[in-house]
Design goal:
This protein is mainly alpha-helical. Helix content is 77%, strand content 0%. It has nine helices and no strands. Helix 4 runs antiparallel to helix 5 and helix 4 packs parallel to helix 7. The longest helix has 26 residues. The chain is elongated.
């Protein structure tokens, strides 16, 4: 198998093991068995368990941030932008792979490199949202970032709650409810081109 394909296969197997067992309980033996390879093959691609975990985490973080930026760029209508950004998080936690657990429920956040990747999801998404808030409202960078972090926090926490204890709400219903709440707040800040002249 070509190296790139083997690496992808190993990452997929590792994801399944880490999601099911958590970092501390997962063993390289388990990952090699799941992938159908020997441990030496696994170690040829990843020097250790932490390296493997960080590779998965980096990929997951990149994907969430990319999806958030794509959602913001999908429309000029800010109400729809809020809904699209919220749906990024609901869609992510709904994925069958359970990869969100690595980012939002990691049992290794005391490891600085892991904490940095987890924090990068919040700051990466919030930075993209803050740019829109700043450009549209004229609020300063600090205020725009605080509002953006608040929106990301709302999306992340509510999506995780919905997945576990959301009752009979569909993803679409949950996203609509929470994006409606968020829009009622953020929509109160007038666009710069709508603000009355001083």
């Amino acid at each position: 198998m070509p190296r790139k394909e083997r690496r992808a296969q190993l990452l997929e197997s590792a994801l399944e093991v880490f999601v099911a067992q958590g970092y501390h309980a997962a063993a390289m033996d388990d990952i090699a068995d799941r992938a159908g390879v020997s441990k030496p093959v696994l170690y040829q691609h990843f020097p250790g368990k932490l390296d493997l975990y960080q590779a998965l985490l980096e990929t997951a973080a990149d994907q969430i941030i990319k999806n958030c930026r794509r959602a913001l760029a999908s429309t000029e209508d800010n109400k729809l932008r809020v809904a699209a950004a919220m749906d990024v998080f609901y869609g992510y936690v709904a994925e069958r792979s359970g990869a969100f657990r690595l980012v939002f429920e990691s049992d290794l956040t005391n490891e600085p490199a892991v904490r940095a990747q987890v924090d990068r999801v919040t700051t990466g998404c919030a930075t993209a949202i803050a740019e829109v808030i700043h450009d549209d409202t004229g609020l300063d960078d600090e205020a725009s970032m605080l509002l953006a972090v608040s929106l990301v926090g709302m999306a992340q926490v509510s999506a995780r709650y919905w997945l576990v204890d959301g009752g009979g709400l569909t993803r679409e219903q949950a996203t609509a409810l929470v994006s409606g709440l968020a829009w009622r707040g953020i929509g109160g800040y007038p666009r710069t081109d709508e603000a009355p002249e001083a």
